[in-house]
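Team,

Forwarding the record for the chain on the shared tracking sheet. I've put the sequence and predicted structure together so nobody has to dig through attachments.
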Amino acid sequence: MIRDTANKLIEGFYGLLPYETAVHLANAQKEFLLAVSSIIEEQIKWTDNHVERAHGGQGGSPHVP
């Protein structure tokens, strides 16, 4: 229910803007989210590396370079 309301508000905001502006803003938001996702994925890899290095590589994790 909250998600539906939030989605309607966002769509209403995009609806107030000219189409091309809305498309550019949506694309910018997607690029930002992809950048954040990339940072998170890299941090997950490093977290695995830190654990493996701390324990002398005992786990045999495929993430260790």
